[in-house]
Amino acid sequence: MNITPLVWFITIAVTIAFFVYEFFAHVRRPHEPSIGESARWSAFYIGLALLFGVGIGVMSGWTYGGEYFAGYLTEKALSVDNLFVFLIVMTGFAVPKIYQQKVLMIGIVIALVLRGVFIAVGAALIENFSWIFYLFGALLLFLAYRQAFAHGEADPSQGRFMNFVRRHLPVSDEYNADRLTVVKDGRRFVTPMLLVIIAIGFVDLVFAVDSIPAIYGLTEEAYIVFTANAFALMGLRQLYFLIGGLLERLVYLAQGLAVILAFIGVKLVLHAMHVNELPFINGGEPMLWAPEIPIWFSLLFIAGTIAVATAASLIKTRGDRDAPARPLTTPAADDEMAADRERETS
How far apart are CA 319 and CA 303, in angstroms? Predict the structure, then answer.
């Protein structure tokens, strides 16, 4: 792919313009978006992302188009997982619903900036050190294991990092609209809103460690990595309000993402073996017998895994909702109550 500096400039400028429009058109006035508003804008951004992928396929070839779609699907799935943690943060800090849009918007912008930095670093490492694929692959396999066997979600608002922040910043007990600081008795305090934003930024940093190695396992084109991430984050705010209740039903999302991360980790290790230059592995010679997983298979595998995880989650939670309620008394208690009734009637 031959991406000129002008194309990069236009892409980044248009991305910034979208987020500026989002802020002034939707976020500046505090309100809770309606389902209709969220659905329309979510559909718009998803349609725009799909149209952009078709454009890449037509202009640069469908190999790159397939890499974009595989990367977009992976980043979108990881972003939904990110939304679930955002929900935990919002609940932990008891953020009023009319201010949640602003928190999400700031969190998404922070995520895009952090991922942009990671993309640039990743591109430089890949360009100069082929052995980085071994490191990325091992990292993804570790993250897949952690994702699959994590027992519940920790509350980021009560984590060590946030406790450290509370110890070093004077924090007020209540929100003051959407302000970040407030003056009380001549002393300036930070509001819980600032703590929420700090927590969201910390979560974004953690998720960037997952997402960037994952997409570099699908493509080495920094332009595709950036645009797939940008489109995955666009519309994420609306998606939060659209599927808020559904998030809690995606009980197998973590396992589905673990499978995807493990698959990409194996793909990266195989690619590292194929381009091996490390002198202590196979004498520094590439292992050409190592298979290269084609992008069409990666795309089908990722899409299939997301579909199965989503369907299994909805079936499981629907079954749980339809299950009869557990009796509030034990069999022994039931026998005793029956005996009491019999004594009363005799």
Answer: 24
Report pLDDT digits (tens) over 125-174: 887 787 888 888 888 888 888 877 765 556 666 667 777 777 777 877 77
Helices 62-93, 253-274: axis angle to 10 degrees equals 140
Please give the structure tokens belonging to residue 244.
């808020």
**Of the listed ranges 25-34, 137-146, 207-216, the one predicted with least confidence:** 25-34
Structure-model confidence comparison of residues 160 and 122, the more confident one: 122
The maximal CA–CA distance of the chain, rounded, in angstroms, is 95
Distance from C-alpha of 237 to C-alpha of 206, rounded to nearest angstrom: 19
- CA dihedral for 313, 318, 323, 329, sign (positive or negative): positive
- Phi and psi for 191 in degrees, rounded to 5? -90, 165
* Residue carrying the six token digits 């400039």: 9
Sign of CA dihedral 182, 185, 188, 194: negative
Total count of residues recorded for the chain: 346
Residue 266, token pair as written in the block: 């194996």
Rounded to two decimals, what is the model's pTM? 0.77
